[in-house]
Amino acid sequence: MGISHVKSITSPSLFAMTAQANIKIAEERIYLNIDGAVHLDSGFATAGGIVCDKEGNWIIGFHRFLGKCSVFDAELCGILDGLELVQRRGYDQVIIFFDCLQVVKAILGSSSTTSNSALIRRIHNILSQEN
């Protein structure tokens, strides 16, 4: 699977994952910025993000209301939605920025036995697809 992660030098709480799903349509690298959030009082969650080119120009944005879930699930949903979006648009190289080391470890881990395993498997499936 073409995936790795690095800790940002500019922000100690920002992590980036480089994902290279072998889609082979577009050669230009894009940047996917993701965030998931949960309202503390209600427990309702949202996830969203933006896709930018190498100059930082906005390409497209997205968001989704998730209902009640954990921040961990919200981050995973944001990553999954973002990867599906860039895949549909034909990009083959994406650097994903988000702020949850626990999610990086879960995605890079070989398997998950938590309630998040279906989301992680779907992310792995997208990252391993070849055309």
Question: How do the strands and helices of this protein lay out in sequence?
Answer:
Layout: E1 3-7, E2 15-19, E3 26-38, E4 44-52, E5 58-68, H1 71-88, E6 91-98, H2 101-108, H3 117-128
Parallel strand pairs: 3-6
Antiparallel strand pairs: 1-2, 2-6, 3-4, 4-5
InterPro entries: RNase_H-like, RNase_H-like_dom_plant, RNaseH-like_sf, RNaseH_domain, RNaseH_sf
GO molecular function: nucleic acid binding; RNA-DNA hybrid ribonuclease activity
Protein name: RNase H type-1 domain-containing protein
Quick structural gist:
With 131 residues, this protein is an alpha+beta fold. It has three helices and six strands; from the N terminus they run E-E-E-E-E-H-E-H-H. Strand 3 (26-38) and strand 4 (44-52) form a beta hairpin.
Shape: globular
In terms of quaternary structure, what is this? single chain
Q: Examine the secondary-structure arrangement and name the CATH architecture.
A: 2-Layer Sandwich
Which structural class should the secondary elements be placed in? Answer: alpha+beta
CATH fold title? Nucleotidyltransferase, domain 5
Number of helices: 3
* Low-confidence residue ranges: 1-16, 18-26
User: Approximately how much helix is present in the residues?
Assistant: 25-40%
CATH superfamily: Ribonuclease H-like superfamily/Ribonuclease H
Average pLDDT value? 78
Strand order of the largest sheet: 1-2-6-3-4-5
InterPro entries: RNase_H-like, RNase_H-like_dom_plant, RNaseH-like_sf, RNaseH_domain, RNaseH_sf
GO molecular function: nucleic acid binding; RNA-DNA hybrid ribonuclease activity
Domain RNase H type-1: 33-128
Protein name: RNase H type-1 domain-containing protein
